[in-house]
Design goal:
Elements: H1 2-21, E1 28-35, E2 39-40, H2 51-65, E3 75-79, H3 86-97, E4 105-108, H4 114-127, E5 133-141, H5 160-164, H6 169-179, H7 184-203, E6 214-219, E7 225-230, H8 242-246, E8 269-279, H9 280-286, E9 292-301, H10 311-322, E10 331-334, H11 339-349, H12 362-365, H13 369-387, E11 391-398, E12 402-410
Parallel strand pairs: 3-4, 3-5, 10-11
Antiparallel strand pairs: 1-8, 1-9, 2-8, 5-8, 6-7, 9-12, 11-12
Helix pairs in contact: 2-3, 4-13, 6-11, 7-11, 10-11
Length: about 400
Amino acid sequence: MASRIQTVSEHLKGDNRARLFAKNADDVVITCAKRTPLCKARRGAYKDTTYDELLYATMVAAKNSIGIDTSLVGDICVGTVTTPNAPNTARLAALAAGFPNTVPCQTINRFCSSGLMAVSTIANQIRNGEIEIGLAVGYDDLTHDNGKSFGFSDEVLRTQETKDALQPMGWTAENVAGDFGISRQRMDEWALKSHNRAEKADATGVFADEIAPVVVPQKQKDGSKKYVEVTRDDGIRPGTTAESLAKVRPAFPQWAPGHSTGGNASQITDGGAFVLMMTRRKAQELGLPILAKHVATVVAGLAPRIMGIGPAFAIPKLFERTGLGKDDVDLFEINEAFASMMVYCIDKLGLDGEKVNVNGGAIALGHPFGCTGARQVATGLNAIKRTGGKVLVTSMCIGSGMGAAAAFINEQ
């Protein structure tokens, strides 16, 4: 009887996987996925660019890249975490960039998954028949993030978990390292892979295929403003070695075990990304290239004190939802918030590290909070096109104790 149940279960999973790869007119597909260059906060190419100017530049890049009449866009969803007055900023940036006033705009904020939540929101609107075409944008300007926080009442902060959810992210990273015995050496080893892979991808022109250049203002020595085209990431650190990483001091010595450093944690960065989505029917009608099909997005919750291991909760939930297994996935893009969570998630999920962040991740490139979820789609689709794989999974941890993951079928 048990073997019969197992056979039926495997048959159903096989049918489900077949449905994932089938092509139907109502499928939600991606026809464009690009990102801006990612630049060092406060020191990089965007340091003189205000938050609204950077979003405007991202919107202009999107308008110039998507290859359709912008009046056809049914909705724009902007994922952002730190932007002041985000709904108004997003709407104004879209209008200034040349999207007609008939194209509505909304914002979404689920911390570090905001860019992916924008993708998921647009996908769901298309899937539900609300719109045929939508643009998901993710972006954040950490240069001008004032880090302002708001107080909470004693009633809300009466539990340990609510108190934990307000602790700095560095504290949670050290909790992961300490609770699960993740050594500094293993964290640096993963970080070295990220740095070296990103350096190679940049040097060989891989990133050029996913980057949409932007024009931004930069202050000159005489106080004037000059508009400059930015075409490459400026946070990648060429020549990183195991020895150089080992010399970096702990970033959070106040919390044991103190294994996180500026060399093995994500950089503070500015940037944006965008993903154009529509039904397969509409893409074919417009003669647009189909890059991938969106399959599903999931979000999972976990203890806030170890929020970094969110992907270890979200990815299994995604597999359960879709019928996929880890061996079905050709490439993973997992946000490298901290090396401790990366090492844990790879170990816990039993992943092949050669399939994870093959062109480097946030440790090397940076992590503009709202941008990352959309950036991972652009980076992942660019990477999987080169490997010839079929299934891409993106995932990230989320502050306050969550994780998100999404699956895409490559059609390039």
